[in-house]
Amino acid sequence: MSVTYNWALLAPVAVPALGAVLLLVIDLCLPRLGRLHWILAAIILLAGAAFAVPLALPGADSPRRTLCLPNKDCLYLVDHVGVGLQLAALVSAAVVALLAFPIKVPGERAPVLGALVLTAAAGASGVAAAGDLGSWLVMLEVATLPTVVLVALRARRAAIDGALSLLTVSLVSFAILAMGAAMWFAATGGGLLNGGGLLQAAKTPDSHRILVLAMMFIIAGLAFKLSLAPFHSWTPEAVGGASTPIGAYLVVTSKVAALAALLVMVRSMNVLGNPVLGVLGVLAAVSMTLGNVMALREQSTLRFLAWSTVAQAGWVVLPLATVSSTSLRSAAGYLVVYSLATLVAFAVVTAIAHADGRGAATRLRSFGGLLRRRPVLGAALGLALLVLAGLPPGVVGLVAKVLALSPVAGNRLWVLAVVAALNAMLGVAVYLRWLRIILGERQEPVARGRIHPVHTGLVLAGLAGLVVTSFAPQLLLSIVGG
Amino acid sequence: MVASLLIAPLVPILAGIALIAGDRASRVPGRHTTYAIALCAAVIGALATGYAVFARPVLNVQWVPAIGMRLHLSVDGISAPLLVLTAVLGFLVVLHGRHEQPGGGTPGTYFGCLLLVTGGALATFLAQDAISFFLAFELVLVPMWVLIHRFGDPHQPAERARAAAMFILYTVLGSTLMLVGILALVFASGTSDLVALGHGTHLSQGTQTAIAAVLLIGLAIKVPMWPLHSWLPRAHTVAPTAGSVLLAAVLLKMGTYGIVRLVVAPLPLGMARLAPVVGTLAVVGILWGGLVCLVERSLKRLIAWSSVAHMGFVMLGIASGTALGLQAALFGNIAHGVISALLFTVVGGLKQRWGGDDLHVVRDALRDVSPRLGFALVVGFAASLGLPGLAGFWGEVLAMFSAWGAADDQPGGWFKGLAAAAAVGTVLAAGYSLRVLRLVWVGGADKANHVHPAHAGEPLPAANSPATTVQRFADAHGPEWIVVGILVAAVVAIGVDPVPVLHTTDAAVARIFAGVTR
Lengths: 482, 518
Fold this sequence. Notes:
- Chain A contains 20 helices and two strands.
- With 482 residues, chain A is an all-alpha fold.
- With 518 residues, chain B is mainly α.
């Protein structure tokens, strides 16, 4: 049996995966590098991302496929949306690595953490391109399981608790996904995600029913990973307990992986039509409502961001409630904008936590008057919140809201659209609450430290990114083929 | 010169951002520099707007293809009067800032927010693409929120926060519903070009009604139309004077403008189906607002309620479904913009001098204390009650007239009833206008049981020595008097000669109704 290989195409997955091994080997040879491993990890991730860039350019042909079997079925195929998500996963993981660099950890732990981030990023990048059920499932778990260790390695009580709930959820969701995958296998008689077997199965009533059930299981399993309500309960625990860069990893890179996995499935799911998509619509509505309502009362920064991610996950899957060619792009486009804004918010929180102590960053109140005390951090956080709320001057966030709403409104799903509109209002209330604190009375931290230059650089880059994309949203949206 | 279309909104917006950012720099620019920059930006914006209104250039380029958003800016008869109104008021509020610059924040933030609101409103009226219209519509929200939240009434911090939150939450809900409607409309008709949509679409009546209903609910919050108006009186009561002026004279107009652009022109069948409901709610608003004004104690809140009533007339004109009604609505928009700007400027000045705006506090006659403000108040309320020869008259009379002769596909009897009820609303307007003038302009100094607020609890001064009971405070001078003077002149000018405004909107309205019959 001969299989074709296109290494350039495989590089976004292969580079971080091999990089993880490389990092451990380097640690064996030069055991005293310590935190420099984070820099190495970031370089490897950006190198992997660089391989994805040519495919994400507007002119690139899509879908691109490799690992093709003699009968023309391919196990690895990426279209424009997939490449965009690979790029988002790798770049966001690189940002996480850089955010983590200044934070003190025991010397022997840094290479392990770096290797885990690389492994998870490789999984996230791989799942976007999976062409068969087996590699889809494996890649998804590769993307998820390292996060449990990443959370736990902070080695505080809260972190262990968070890791434990994350582990439980991961196991449950894996079980559900495996169940769904098994039923899929039974219905279609094969593992390919877009082969002829699927169409065949959708035509016969019996196997169609099994297929719908399989899809339900798969959606439920993915909903855990996307932290869609009612499968969200691990999110505040894990994000609140983890160190802040790992929190960013959980709510950005993991989310990219989960959405990539969902999009791969939705693409083949379109033949099944309504019942499946209706489920996604309900999940979206419940999730955004619950996330917003809970965030409205939350006092802790990290848990606030966790609830915000639950709400935003609802917005991400909102367009998938419709059958249309644009809905995949809309979901991916929304996710990319969300990722940028959330990373900026996490960068600011991490910078403050590192400079003034974690206590000065975990309570919303301690951000009082940030815009006066630290104008750059305050402006970046303020703009990120406005983007998440979808209010100008955060124009790119508004564009993302338009993107997410357009398939729903275009197909005149009025109920869903009205729920979304109400949630746009709730979301504004949520994010303006924090913004008011930033604009409000000064709250001096107990110990005021210096912001680490790497953090300053990242925040400045994020601020510049938000400003530039607010004038030209197309720059960001075009990476998913918008 | 196409550049004027970009200069008009962008110069105020960029200057506003620069002022706000400059405030955070290590060397904060001084008060005078800030004022000069803000004034320059407002003047440049106004001149560019004037040029664009005069020369009518068109700009149409691709912007965000992912959501089908184009950068399409131009001016037509419907937007031209509103653009002039916005540009002039944008300049006047900055000028007024010399006189009243509220505390609560730095001058840079204050003027920056005023410029951002002005620029955003200009962009809204210039946009000819439905999705960029929505974007510009949203642009004004955050600066307005800051104006109310930070620079509002310093005596009521809790109420300020609540009013600001209510303002932004209501309007965000409204504009998101509007977005849903816009997207449905764009998807169904296949274009987001407002010029193309202005010729009407060929959708079925059911589809048109559903989309029009969503759009109308969304925009009715902005107008605001009864029963979605409750954010307005709150926001006006605590907002700073300039904020109130922009809110009443510019932001509310964005709602009615949106209805004309997005509902009346593209969805004639849907609008015709919903017109009786819209007309009824408009008249309820007229009566409701008028009745509240008869008993309201807070002067600023009273003017806010009267705005609800006046916007009811505008909506009644739109609901009539006739070209005359639409003309009346567009004219009423401008008239209410000028009148409410005048009233809020005068009353804001009075509230600042009095230290409150409770009408039950007996005060000295304004005609004695401050003849200029007194005169302006009389002109403002006379226009508000619809006195012929002043701006308010034409819009309201024509609105009632058009409702009396509503379009053929409307229930004529019902609309005749609505016209009659609206006429009762004008009587209420006369009632509350005269009430305010009696309490404020005539004053209570000659009453036997006079208790001066400043002397309450102290022994009464001798009743026959008027010199001691008349509390002198500075009359309007300098920038405040210039602003008030210009607005008084505008109220009289539009009232005496309404033809130029009516003439400007004439052709555009005719085009909309040509699309309907086709």
